[in-house]
Request: fold
Amino acid sequence: MIIKINGIPCECEKGEFILQIARRNGIDIPTLCHHDAFAGQGSCRLCIVELVAGGRSRIVVSCVYPVDRECEIFTENERVRRQRGMILRLLEARAPESTEIRALCDKYGAPRFERFVRVDGEKCVMCGLCVKACAELSVGAISTVNRGVTKEIATPYHEPSSVCIGCGSCAHVCPTGAIEMSETRDSRRIWGKTFRLVRCSRCGAVIGTEEELAMAAERAGQEQDGLCNTCRQERIAEVFAQSYGV
Amino acid sequence: MKTIRVCCDTGCLASGSMKVAEEFERLSAGSGVRVECHVKRTGCNGFCEKGPLVTILPDDISYYQVKPSDVPEILEKTIGKGEAVERLLYRNDKGERVLRQQDNPFYAPQLKIALRNVGRIDPENVDDYLEEGGYQALKKALGMTPGEILDEMDVSGLRGRGGAGFPTGRKWRTAAGYDVFPKYVVCNGDEGDPGAFMDRSILEGDPHSVIEGMAICALAIGAEEGFLYIRDEYSLAVENFRAAIRVAEERGFIGDSVMGSGKKLHLSVVRGGGAFVCGESTALMQSIEGKVGEPRAKYIRSVQRGLWDHPTVLNNVETFANVPYIIMHGAAGYAAIGTEGSKGTKVFTLVGKVRRTGLVEVPMGVTLRQLIYDIGGGVQNGRPFKAVQTGGPSGGCIPESMMDLPVDFDTLKEYGAMMGSGGMIVMDDRSCMVEVARYYVDFLCGESCGKCTPCREGLKQMLAILEDICHGRGTMEDLDLLESLGETMKDSSLCALGQSAPNPVLTTLKYFRNEYEAHILEHRCPAGVCKELTSFYVDPDKCRGCSACVRACPVGAASGEPRSPHKIDPDKCISCGSCREACRFDAVLTKGKAVRKMKAGAGENSSGNGARDAAPGDGGFERGTAAVSNERGTAAGNENSTESGNGIGKAGFDAAMAEGRDGK
Amino acid sequence: MPVSKEDIDGILKHYPREQRYSLAIMQDLQRRYNYIPREGMEALSEYLGCPLSNLYSMATFYKALSLKPKGRHIIKLCDGTACHIRGAVPLLDGLRRLLEIGEGETTEDGLFSLELVNCLGSCALAPAMVVDEAYYGNMTLEKLPGILEQYRKEASGS
Reply:
């Protein structure tokens, strides 16, 4: 099937998401809450595009909109630009500390609204990726709390979580660096809890927190070897070399 | 044998109808009178305002505002001798007492289909329902093929009564087309629009009609399980419904073999958790699954993948209540009622500043004027009409000039409002349209699920702007910004809540722009509602010295000798308006509060909380742009601690505005 | 009401161990204690085998649920649109003054909790107020002190 994005014909399968198709064809659409591993959030609304099909035109969210028939899509017209600019400035007011948002505002020429109330010191844009990542790892240490304009991400009772393993996945997927994670040589601190770091027994690189490795061991059903991925591969190569004289 | 119906719905119960019912039972015991005071928890026949309501059959005499002390007289005169108790009859607009409900102007224009049994039957007694032809439609449907049922629904033209107005037949047909099992039928009883209570009345007053409607739907689409999601606050409805399901299963109307057909249908009640957003279908389904009620971001219809990703038909209470009638009496007859695009009747709640308040059912297409003036009797206390708010937080405020528009799914939408689920809130000249917009936005700030940016952040900014305008801190540019925010929220929000959230703001901006301008340019609230801009005073020529204001004032600001003009002490007055409401001579008037040209440190103005708290010597006064005052307010901290921060910003901004304008 | 493990387990056992019952169970806990005690949340997390964070998310999302203990009498002042335009706000101010607490708070003596709630569907009697299960329609500031006094007397009498 062929659809047109900004006038460019793009080949696609029925059911593919607009964002996927656009990116494959080198067409830029900004996103915050989209992550290939945890798709389908649709919460930041930054990736809006205008869809024209069957004589009707409307704004859709490209990360979750599956193409089901021939249509024309515009990612940079006046309407998209105006609304995306508004969304960006709303995000900026929400998270004034985020350099990522500021850069996006500049890149997409969002008009300034001095009027907006700003949340001092905030970086989080409530995209929900961290919660999704934590849940996908079957940890479930954090969740959204409250609703409406007071919604936030937190651990239960805003206390250090008993189930958090300190893996830092939440911080890694965060598009605005809003989750504080600090490390010393031996420890990592995240969500108000301190974890001991385990290092590779050969090269000394960090391979995770104690809790993280214990969970991995439990899931794999065997003891971990205490090596980082690089060293593990090297050791396998060595074993091969010794056994077969390669 | 005479029957006494005592209305015992939530509204009438609040007016003490249970005591009246008990008194009837007690005094009539052994008197040979059949007392049907188990006609409980109905929609109060709709006229809740005049409850407790008592109807005597077969004489068809309706009494209003009955007290337990009236009971002996009713028994003696009406039951005993067939005479009416004059003083308990309704007095119509001409001042005549009317005997029958049909002669009451509140009831005369009504046509009851969805409410056909509400107020007539005892909801706890299924035999009452059977006497009215209950479960006959289900029996008839069992003799039809699913295709025939779907055809009937199509012909009837029934559209979803929850507000969106999607054709019910088409929805059912789509769900029926999927060969994925199990399928589910869900009834949305999470009535959340403030000012709407039609679904509650049906759930409380006629639960079996909803069960029957759901059962017919289940037959048509091939579902064997169904859920009723009912607002947690509606405890009577939950109770009545659970009991009704139990009875329907015991009697074999539903359960393991629906009326002996061998087809299964099990229904259960799910209590809502208290979230307006759960009125949105995908959020409601999340809630039934035991999750946080956030709407689904994906563009997949729930008829295809709904509850637990299975085909699901979700309709609202009123929609299901219409179904048995359509099947029983034929779709063609139903389709003859209403307008071209909106068939049948619609239930409305007529509330607010209207003379006759209550629940009404009329054919689609009646005009707002007929509803508000003919049925509702116009505005309370003879005050001027200002607007009617329809469709709750998703709807809009409609001005006098549009009163002759027909009410149906499509017309009001063209004007930026919507019929919605049927709440109609009448507003008079003492309702501030800016404050009403602020009220809805504030409501939605707390009720948005908070998932998507335009809704969550857009509402927050809208609220801040509207609060500023209500406090006299707004600018004309703010109005443009509200419109831009509205456009983005409409187009880009994730679900219907966010997409329709700007409607109350946009319609008031469109039809009552002058009120916004008065707040901004003149620092005046024309309705005398916005406290910061309103002060109250007594017109000595009108005041009769009755002291009603003195009794009503909660802070002792009103005073005066009996029979001589009273006074309101501006230093004590908190601008709550209680005196104005209490005054029967329109002697309490409002004027704007003097906006003084304040320089930094001139925080001596005693007329407003904010100004009183203003700290002297704050340099921020001079800057006085909207953004500055705003940021200052937030920076000062959250909730209570913002009081003084806002106050400074306000005073400073007022001053700057006043100066700026003078300068031009 | 004191929180006991047996009591909580008794509530849990009414329901199968499935996620779909989480909201219903929390509502039952709420009904029993007027709030959901932490012990209840933790027991439920274990019972359903779902993370505490999910339940915490729900408990803070749904307004019918509360994680904070409430007063003996819960005053719900309706702020539906009909009540709002017929004077719910001055009533709220009045209650704040008389009880010396804000909405969502409980008086020091634990007698009253004050809540501002969405439409109760009693618009015909606007403005409306509900104390526990008792409805008070056509409310005015004048009526407030008497109503509160009635509950205070009851409490001191018992």
